[in-house]
Amino acid sequence: MMQRIFILLVLLVLTSSKEKSEETYVKKTSKPLNVLMITVDDLRPELNFYGANHIKSPNLDKLAQQSLVFNRAYCNIPVCGASRASLLTGTRPTRYRFINAFTKKDEDHPTAISLPMLLKQNGYRTISNGKIYHHKTDDAEAWDEIWQADKLWNYALLKSQEIRRNTQRGLPIEAAEVHDSIYRDGKLALKVVNDLQKLKSSSQPFFLTMGVTKPHLPFCAPKKYWDLYDRSKIELPESYQQPKTTPKKAFHNYGELRKYEGIPKKGDLPEDLAKELIHGYYASVSYVDAQIGLVLDELKRLKLEENTIVILWGDHGWNLGDHKLWCKHVTFETALRTPLMIKVPGRTKGQTTDAITEYIDVYPTLSELTGIEIPKTVEGKSFVPVINGNESKKDWAVSKFKDAVTLITGDLFYTEWTDNEGVAYERMLFDHAKDPLELDNLAEKEEYQQTIAMLAKELREKWGKNFLKENKN
């Protein structure tokens, strides 16, 4: 009897030791998740998985089928430099921080631990490829490597290059019979593919980025992508109007576009030119879709996708004639709403969510997914619960541009233009349940004044505790 008990005790100890050994082995050999972050400049959520059916983007469509797609993601400021610095620090723009395209994280928020710096501090190899921050050398200490292709606004044709040299911006479009790799984003794709091949054999986790520059102006793409579209079937947007009820401050002269050759210096664009620009935008999206496809295919071929988070976002929306506007720089939904999707191994498979999400929420989400503590400076809220299939407790976002500050809550888009003291001097309110194109400003209607008062209070509660403070940190 005693011998039998002894044998059982020995077996129990051995089994327990084996389980502990296996547990330790799993902990030691399980690698942290890699992160591949793809950023696309000026990309509207005008894609098939958002309900459109005219832009050909098969690789983005495929990625969406493997991801969680956010139907209501919003940038915190509709201009590239500021939007990127805000997202990569997880902090809100204020009246004095993250203002315009030329924003530098190092100047506006030097004490914030950026997302790439956080990952680098926690053992990740960090590589900045293409346009991640607006300035190549911004937050340079956060990266193990920074790479960009030759010229930011390169043209393929000699005649286009000559026009560019002799004018402010050059032509707004180009369709050339050239290989994809001649243009900047084609070179970028090859660099990222090469990085993946090198990183495959590394035991170090990676934060690898792909900063795509198109469909930013000028709309340059190989001719085969232009040939995907019939311009005679392209229509101007339904919202091609500027209602009198909308404050004039809500509109602008789209100076970014007017710097290009052949664009009138004032007034509406001729209809043929407007459709040519829309055509160029579509072609540029199809071109960058192909480049993103090369990278995603290589990720799969190398069997890295099984342990890699893929997140794709556009830095802000873009107007393609909406409200007779072009470019960004406004607080209409067309400039604020953005494409956002995240693919997490084993957890996403083509789900969609209507949860309102701000770009400052990206940082804490990736921190949580990689198991790294979120720094105290981060103001966003992780959307990991949404990835896990739970409902979001957050149903609002705040965006701003210059004096205009917008609260997005439920179906309501409420904008105030405020002075340095936070006092409103102009208002705009749209109810997307009734007016998705934002053509009927409700802010001056008597029956909405109680709603306006409520929204004004909520806006100030949510625009950030340092919104009016000149101290950048």
From TrEMBL:
Any one annotated GO CC term: cytoplasm
Coiled-coil segments: none
Cofactors named for this entry: Ca(2+)
Segments forming domain Sulfatase N-terminal: 34-372
InterPro entries linked to this entry: Alkaline_phosphatase_core_sf, IDS, Sulfatase_N
UniProt keyword annotation of Zinc present: no
Any Pfam family: Sulfatase
GO MF, one example: iduronate-2-sulfatase activity
Entries under CDD domains matching the protein: iduronate-2-sulfatase
Keyword list, A-Z: Calcium, Hydrolase, Metal-binding, Signal, Transferase
Keyword Metal-binding applies: yes
Family label: Belongs to the sulfatase family.
Protein name: Sulfatase-like hydrolase/transferase
Species assigned in the record: Spongiivirga citrea
